[in-house]
Amino acid sequence: METALLCPWESATFLFVSSSVPLLINYSHFIAIFSAVAVSLLVFINNPKNTISRLFLFFATLFTVWALLDVALWATNDPSIVMFAWSIQVLIEPLTYAVAFYLFYIFLYQKTPGFYTNLFVVTILIPLVLLLPTTLNLEAIALSTCESIEGPLAKYYTYLLNITFVILIVITAFRQLKRLEINRRRSAILFLIGLVTFLLSFTSGNIISSFTDDWIISQYGLFGMPIFAFLIAYSIIQFRAFKIEMAGAQILVVVLWALVCSLLFVDSELFTLIVVITLIFTTVVGYFLIKGVKREFEQKLELERLTKDLERANKRLKVLDKMKSEFVSIASHQLRSPLTSIRGYASMLLEGSYGTVPPKAKEALERISESSKYMVNSVEDYLNVSRIESGNMKYEMSDFNLKETTSTVVDELRQTAMQKGLLLTFRSDLTSKGIVNADIGKTRQALHNLINNSLKYTERGSIVVSVGENKTTKKIMVTISDTGIGMSEDTLDSLFAKFSRAKDANKTNISGTGLGLFVAKQMIEHMGGTITAKSDGPGKGSSFTLELPLQQ
Amino acid sequence: MEQFHLDKYSRILLIVFILLTMLSIAATHYKTVVLKDFVIIDDLDEVVEE
C-alpha cells in the first residue's frame, strides 16, 4: 500500500491550528469572522422573522465557512483536504456574492426579485455547481506549497460571477436609490458602500493572489468585512437600519473589545502593523463613540428644555381655559340679560302696556324686537360653540317622544313660515311610539336649527318635516325636505363646519352666524345620533335627516 | 416583521439549485477525500498519479 503524500510541514491540530499559519492569517480571518458574525447576529436577534435578517445571517455564515476553510487550507498538510476545501471555497465565494445581491435587492425594494432575475442568477451559477468536481475547477496540487493549481472555472469563471453580482448590485442601487426617502437612502448608501467595498476588496485580493500565486495578498481583502460590519453598525445607530433600535455605545464597545482581544493573536514580528491597524480602528470607533455620547447628551438637554416649555405652555393653557370659562359666564349674563330686557320692553310697548304707540314708532319697535331676537339667537349660538369646544356642554338625558317634540317645534315655526309665504307641513309614518333617550332641550334646539335653516334658504314652495323609523338599524329619523336654493357638492362637504354659510347667502340677504348646523350636528352626535344632508344640486332643494336611536 | 415570499417557479428553481449544490459537494468530497482522485505535482516537478 502506497503511503499518502503530504506537504512538507507538520500536521494541523484540530484542522486549524498549525505553526505554519502566519499570524496575519489568524488576525485577518478571525477579525473578519467576528465582525460578520457579530453584526449579522445582532440584526438577526433583533428581527428573527425578517427575511433580510435571515438572509444577512446566511450571508455571514457563508463568509464564515469560506474564512474557516481558508484557515484550514493554510494549516493543513493533507493534499486531499486542500483539494476539497479549495473546491468548496470556489463554490462558496460566488454564492456569497449572489446572497449579497439578494440582500441588497430586498433591502432596497422590500420584495424579492422576479422569476427571470432568479432564473438568470441560477443559470449563471449552474456551470460552477456542475463542474465543481471536475479538473476544469482544480487541475492539480503542488506539493511543495500545498496549493491547488486552478483550472479555468476557479481562475476565471468564479471572478466573472463575482464581478457580475457586484454590477447587479450597483445597477439595483442606481435604479432604486433616488426613489427612497432621505433616511432610508442614506442608510442604503452606507450599506452599498460597505457591501461593495467588501466584495471588491475580497475579489481583487483573490484575483491578484490567483494570478501571482501569492496568497498573502488575498488576506488584506478580508479587511473589507470589518469595514462593512462597521458601516452596517453605524447605519443601524444613525438611521435605524433594519428597523433596529440600538444605542451606538453598545455596538462600539463590542468592537473595541474585539480589537483589544485581537492583540492576543499578535507576535513581535507583526506587532507594529497590527497595533497600527488597531489604533486606526480605535480612533475611528472612539470618534463615533464620543460623537454618539455627545449627541445623546444634547438630546437629553433638549428634552429637558422641551419638558419645561411644555410645562409652561400647559400652565398658560390652564389660565386661558379659565379665562375662556369666565368669558362664557360674562357673555351669558352680561349680554343675554340686557337683550332679554330689550325684547321684553319692546314687546310690552308693542302690546300697548305703556299707552298707544304711534304707527311709525310701532314699526321701529318691531325692528328692535326682531333684531334683539336675532341677537339673542346669535349669542346663544356663540355660547353653544364655546361650551361644545370646551367640553362644558351639559346633557340631561331622558326618555321622550320625538314625534311630539318635532310636531311642537314645527308648530312654533309655522308662523314664521307663513310670514314668508311658505307651506310648512308635518307628517308621521311612525308605527312605534317613537321614544328616544336624549336631552330634550338640545334635541328641540337641533330640530329648530334645521327647520329654521330650511326656512332661511327657501324663498318659495314648501318645507315638509316627516318622522319615520328604520326597523333594521332601530333608529328614528326626522327628515326636513325643502324646495329651497339647494346645494352643490362643495357646499355639502363644508356644510356642517363652523361659520359655514351658503355661497350666495349674503346676496339673498339671509341672516345667520353659520353656526346653527354645526351646533345641531355636534349636539346630536354627542347623544349618539347623526345629521346628514342631501341635495340634487343648486336650485333643486335640500333634505336634512336627523337620526336618533330608538329606545326599546 | 415583513417576510418576503418567492413565487412558485422561483421556489422550485431554488430547491433544484440547493439539491444540485448538495450533490456537487458530495461528489467533490467523494472524489477528493475518499478516492483522492487528483494530480499531485511534487517538489521535483514530477507528475505523480495517486
Overview of the structural elements:
The complex is a heterodimer of chains A (552) and B (50). Helices cover 64% and strands 10% of the residues of chain A. Chain A is elongated and about 135 Å long. Chain A has helices spanning 23-46, 51-75, 79-109, 115-131, 152-176, 182-212, 217-221, 224-239, 248-262, 271-351, 359-390, 402-419, 440-456, 489-494, 516-526; strands at residues 138-142, 147-150, 397-401, 423-428, 435-439, 462-470, 475-482, 530-535, 542-549. In chain A, the strands form three sheets. A five-stranded mixed sheet of chain A has the order 4-6-7-9-8, covered by helices on one side. Chain A starts with 22 loop residues before the first helix and ends with a strand. Chain A is α+β, with helices and mostly antiparallel strands and 552 residues long. Chain B is an alpha+beta fold. In chain B, 54% of the residues lie in helices and 12% in strands. Chain B has one helix and two strands. Chain B has one helix spanning 8-34, and strands spanning 39-41, 47-49. A two-stranded antiparallel sheet of chain B has the order 1-2. In chain B, strand 1 (39-41) and strand 2 form a beta hairpin. The relative contact order of chain B is 0.09. The chains are: A alpha+beta (552), B alpha+beta (50). The interface between A and B is large, with 42 and 34 residues.
